[in-house]
Amino acid sequence: MEPFKVFPLYDINIVRGNACRIYDDQGTEYLDLYGGHAVISVGHTHPYFVQKVTEQLNTLGFYSNSVINSLQWELAKKLGQQSGYEDYSLFLVNSGAEANENAIKLASFYNGRRKIVSISKAFHGRTDAAVRVTDNPKIVAPVNEAIPVEFIPLNDIEAMERVLAPKDVCAIIIEGIQGVGGVNIPSSEFLQAVREMCDKTKTVLILDEIQSGYGRSGKFFAHQYSGIRPDLISVAKGIANGIPMGGLLISPKFPAVFGQLGTTFGGNQLACAGAIAVLDIMKAEKLVDNADKIGSYLQQELSKMIGKYEINDVRGRGLMIGIEFNYPVKALREKLITEQHVFTGASGTNILRILPPLCLTKTDVDLFLQRFKSLFVEK
Ligand SMILES: Cc1ncc(COP(=O)(O)O)c(C=O)c1O
């Protein structure tokens, strides 16, 4: 048997990691500005993270959600305190798609409606409702087409007011910052207008902070730049530094109904130990501030290149940055990996996406800038 081929692969076998560096089976060191797709938050093999997860594995790796799991309570308490959502409750799952799937289900249980409004270029995952509200028909299977959905352009207040006005929309789902769609930031005016319109029409506001959340933007959640409070917030990616985990932060207005939501693996002891260690490290090492400070420095240095090397735009917040070129970046991204030993991500065809671990240092940034610029120097 072989793995089912779902993505084209780089011919590199990554076998080891440390902070913002990864190593292949030949011993070659790479600078990791991708974090395995925004997943590595506190750095590869952080000693405290490894210690806590190892201790947990030696104590109890898993038991069912039908008994008390005090680690879930500890995680919820710390997440509430560190994110500013102490009055919300937490439902733990295993991935980003599953967090969004449950957000949409909970919204629909709550107001009894079916139609979902999403944003052009959105990506929310690959399960039924999550893929339906993803703006990519190529990954929506016929079986996913049952849920009624309407896409509106990002930051178009008029369009948003028009679709929500009939009061038949179950929920509107918006990424804190669009990732796959090209590092596009919702304006504060837009998010505030959405909040107001959701209140008027009893529409549930879901913020997908799976990629932009957990400190990446320089605030705990990217939507906190606009001062709004969503009804539901989905998280995943960096929450447990690579242990599969997702979560849904739920406003107190949603009643918990036994049996309505559930999961076998979600919130298991091992994942919780990893997620608690992540929050402890984020607090001790002030990683949200670091994302803000180092991200601003990187963005500022990259912005000096706009107009050069066919770079059109540099945008983002904290350590979620897009560099938009006039041409497809596939070859450039490959060159960065193979010649300069730097991993980055991409969005669409023309955008390089920078999603490093939140412990990135100024030395790492300077090394990246040097290697990045050297790609454009005539040899
Ligand atoms: C904004 C956003 N939502 C949802 C998802 C889906 O997460 P997962 O792949 O863990 O299901 C992703 C993954 O890239 C994402 O970026």
Description of the molecule:
The chain has 379 residues and is of the alpha/beta class. It has two domains: 14-46 and 286-374, Aspartate Aminotransferase, domain 1; 47-284, Type I PLP-dependent aspartate aminotransferase-like (Major domain) (Aspartate Aminotransferase, domain 2), CATH 3.40.640.10. 34% of the residues lie in helices and 18% in strands. It is built from eleven helices and 15 strands. The strands form three sheets. It has a seven-stranded mixed sheet with strand order 4-10-9-8-7-5-6, with helices on both faces. It has a four-stranded mixed sheet with strand order 1-2-3-13. Strand 1 and strand 2 form a beta hairpin. Helix 6 packs parallel to helix 7. The protein is globular. The N and C termini lie far apart (45 Å). The relative contact order is 0.17. The mean pLDDT is 97. The structure holds pyridoxal-5'-phosphate. Pyridoxal-5'-phosphate is lined by residues 95-97, 100, 123-125, 175, 179-180, 208, 210-211, 236.
How do the strands and helices of this protein lay out in sequence?
Blueprint: E1 14-18, E2 21-24, E3 29-32, H1 35-38, H2 47-59, H3 70-83, E4 89-93, H4 96-111, E5 115-119, H5 128-132, E6 149-152, H6 157-164, E7 169-175, H7 188-201, E8 204-208, E9 232-235, E10 246-250, H8 269-284, H9 287-303, E11 311-317, E12 320-325, H10 330-338, E13 342-343, E14 345-347, E15 351-354, H11 362-374
Parallel strand pairs: 3-13, 5-6, 5-7, 7-8, 8-9
Antiparallel strand pairs: 1-2, 2-3, 4-10, 9-10, 11-12, 12-15, 14-15
Bound molecules: pyridoxal-5'-phosphate (PLP).
Residues 95-97, 100, 123-125, 175, 179-180, 208, 210-211, 236 line the site of pyridoxal-5'-phosphate.
